[in-house]
Amino acid sequence: MNNFIFCNPTKLIFGKNQIAQLTKLIPTDKKLMLTFGGGSVKQNGVYSQVMDALKNHNFIEFWGIEPNPKIHTLRKAITLCKENNIDFILAVGGGSVLDGTKLIAAGVCYDGDA
Q1: What are the Cα distances from residue 95, in Å, to 3, 29, 53, 67, 85?
Q2: Is the pLDDT reported for residue 54 higher than 80?
Q3: Are the beta carbons of 41 and 93 closer than 8 angstroms?
Q4: What are the φ and ψ backbone dihedral angles of 35, each rounded to 5 degrees?
Q5: Residue 10 pLDDT class (50, 70, 90 cuts)
Q6: Does the pLDDT at position 1 exceed 80?
Q7: What's residue 39's pLDDT?
Q8: Which CA distances in Å does 85 have to 1, 46, 48?
């Protein structure tokens, strides 16, 4: 095994009304992709909070990450990120959206098949 150093700083922000923090946390000069599942975020009000927080940001939306995400769905998102020179990906939803977005982020930086 080769020696290496791994540093992965993480900031987790929890609590009521914390979605509004996105305005300050994501630079406005970055191109974003927002990833979503089937639409429950519209029903529970999260979508409108995210839209309010990111109203001054440049972003595209990717919908349809299913439970236990399918690779063909995630490949579409990877392609869209590459075509739009996306700098930042924000998962908005549950565990499958989060897991799928992790693969999307890795796939954007990889020339092979994620």
Answers
A1: 32, 28, 22, 8, 25
A2: yes
A3: yes
A4: -110, 140
A5: confident
A6: no
A7: 92
A8: 34, 26, 25
Give the chain's mean pLDDT: 94
* CA quadruple 40, 42, 43, 46: dihedral sign: positive
The token pair at 112 is 């092979």
The region of weakest confidence among 3-7, 11-15, 70-74 is 11-15
Q: What domains are defined for the chain? A: 27-47+60-108 (3.40.50.1970)
What is Dmax (Cα atoms) for the chain? Answer: 49
- Three-class SS state of 111: coil
Joined together, the tokens standing for residue 22 give 């996105």
